[in-house]
């Protein structure tokens, strides 16, 4: 409203034959620039397509125990680059011996249908942290939810990760 009243005042001053000094001309140009800026700020976002942005999310960490050893696991997903991952982190008893911890990453469409999965991979050296990631190539809304496997003395204990949010590809 302010810009309209200033614009009307300037138009009235010009139309009345009064001298329009450099100050009035500069003010008129400023009002025009402000009006164009305001319109661009409201109109362009409404008609322009949304910009593509890289997105990344990791699920909440799940705590569990296997063979008296404490672990955390979680899944992650990224839109640029497009990958899904699963991670297991050994929180006690030092490094895991070779072959004692493994993970599998999986990518699902938002309706819960499996899109792609990695192979289950196991550590090939002594580690406290192990992960696997793969380029899933799924389109649409996708989330990641994998699992970890830890040696429990008689075999592997499988613990699922919690799911990530859906990302759009």
Q: Average pLDDT across residues? A: 81
CA distance, first residue to last residue = 42 Å
Residue stretches low in confidence (pLDDT < 50, at least 5 long) are: 1-19, 33-51
Give the topology string: H per helix, E per strand.
Answer: HHEEEEEEEEEEEEE
Q: Globular, elongated, flat, extended or rod-shaped: what is the shape?
A: elongated
Q: Care to count the β-strands? A: 13
The helicity comes to 10-25%
> What composes the largest sheet?
5 strands, antiparallel
Report the total helices: 2
Q: Using the CA coordinates, give the radius of gyration.
A: 30 Å
Secondary structure category? alpha+beta
Q: Strand fraction band?
A: 35-45%
Description:
The chain is built from two helices and 13 strands. The chain is of the alpha+beta class. Strands 1, 2, 3, 4 and 9 form a five-stranded antiparallel β-sheet that branches. Strands 8-5-11-12 form a four-stranded antiparallel β-sheet, with no helix packed on it. A four-stranded antiparallel β-sheet has the order 7-6-10-13, with no helix packed on it. The longest helix has 26 residues, at 22-47.
